[in-house]
Amino acid sequence: MSELKIPVEFRKPLMELLSSSEYNSIIDVLTTAKIGTDSKFLSKLLQEKFKLETDKAEVYVNLIFNILYFRYKYLTDDNDDEIIEDIINLLKKMKENSIEDKMALFSEKLKKMFSLSDSVGITVRAIDLMTSQEKYLKNTEVFTDIRPLFQKYPCAGDCYSVLIHQLKIAYMCGGKVEEIYIALDSDDVEKLIKKLQKANDIENELNKIVKNDFKIISFKSE
Hints:
It is built from 8 helices and 3 strands; from the N terminus they run αααααααβββα. By secondary structure, it is an alpha+beta fold. The relative contact order is 0.12.
């Protein structure tokens, strides 16, 4: 079995999460999240419901995502005790904290976290499948400007200009964010919209075809 690695800077937040009196409520809220909901929305949800600071909510959600990912990737239901022991041993290395009297409680709380495998855990698995592609979209932006065409200035008669849309595509490749800029004119934009609409229509049709066998996950913020 691969060794679970939790960076040193995240061990204290993990201790805080497991020690929190609201831990069970936090897990219950995450259980109700729609499959495919991204980590940013889940962080915002915890921030609002439990009055958490933004950074702390994000760390909590990322910790849960990473632990569920490790469980899905390397473990089975039959050896959950191994990952629990692994986590407990990591926390024991934090010399400023003694958890000997909390081991049983922490073990039960981690088992409750594993109950997220049928909700948040499915999202984690879907994200892993999507991000295992060689390149995948990170975000997009469009910048539009007008470029005047000057033969003489001031214009003698009609003045002309070109409207240019710059499509910025940020994508992940080899764990790094790469960017590309593509110039589009109005006709290009219209063609692109039609292609994307066609893709959306195909997705809707596929959902209808496979709805009795599969539920297609949409990665959307609620």
